[in-house]
Design a protein that fits this description.
The protein is an alpha+beta fold and 151 residues long. 26% of the residues lie in helices and 28% in strands.
Length: 151
């Protein structure tokens, strides 16, 4: 008989697997904070976090509220603290250290295709898109207008 888990319990289990060293642990993407790179319903594949964490990495971490979040590293500070943001956001979130980091996204399935570091789509969102932080809302609005005109 299948057992239904709530989101918190599911992600707690994912973190336990990562703590044991499991790799390529799949989680469904929920929400839109990582659009345009990851969309609701895509799949992210996680490995345990590596040292050092780098700008452009996508991490699974917990906020001080206990909420699990999947966002991109925007800046790594000398003291090990991090500035993180979703690809659809303009705000930065401060993480005091890597003790709240549970996993690193090593590949992702988007529209049926696997994306990995080193591929063009991955590079665009971990480099140029990261630099365009303050212009993201405008660029995403323009993208949406272009999409609706094509239809």
């Amino acid at each position: 008989m299948a057992r239904i888990l709530d989101t918190q319990e599911f992600l707690d289990t994912i973190c336990e697997l990562l703590n044991r060293g499991e790799t390529s642990v799949a989680i469904p993407v929920v929400g839109g904070s990582m659009v345009p790179f990851l969309h609701h319903g895509d799949t992210a594949y996680l490995d345990p976090p590596r040292d050092p964490i780098k700008r452009g990495d996508i991490l699974l971490y917990t906020r001080s509220t206990g909420q699990y979040v999947l966002h991109r590293v925007m800046q790594v500070n000398a003291d090990g603290s991090l500035w993180i943001s979703g690809d659809a956001q303009q705000e930065l979130e401060y993480l005091p250290g890597k003790e709240c980091v549970h996993g690193l996204v090593t590949s992702a399935r988007h529209k049926g295709k696997i994306n990995r570091p080193g591929q063009l789509r991955w590079w665009i969102y971990s480099h140029p898109w990261r630099w365009l932080l303050r212009y993201r809302y405008r660029l995403m609005g323009l993208r949406e207008k272009l999409r609706t005109r094509r239809k």
